[in-house]
Write a sequence for this structure.
């Protein structure tokens, strides 16, 4: 098993950045949703293809956004717990030093 060490401040910054990225990606985006100017049959076929693409794209994008948010939350919890453990350990050593 291997372990990684990260400065707590950087881990808090990573958590905040991931939460920021999640919120930016979650912001509503306008996209092509309706077409016109083609014949009825062609227009409907293109419209159906666009709708299907958007549905698939929204699903995969939402999964990505959820994962980024989860990693941000996890990083924040890890940072907070590691920081708490460091402070508790420091307090114990301070008492022993007296």
């Amino acid at each position: 098993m291997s372990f990684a060490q990260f400065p707590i401040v950087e881990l808090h910054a990573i958590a905040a950045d991931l939460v920021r990225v999640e919120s930016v990606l979650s912001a509503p985006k306008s996209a092509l949703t309706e077409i016109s100017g083609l014949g009825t049959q062609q227009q409907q076929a293109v419209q159906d293809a666009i709708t299907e693409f958007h549905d698939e794209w929204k699903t995969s994008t939402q999964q990505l956004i959820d994962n980024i948010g989860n990693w941000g939350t996890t990083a924040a919890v890890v940072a907070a717990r590691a920081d708490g453990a460091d402070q508790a350990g420091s307090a114990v050593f301070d008492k022993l030093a007296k």
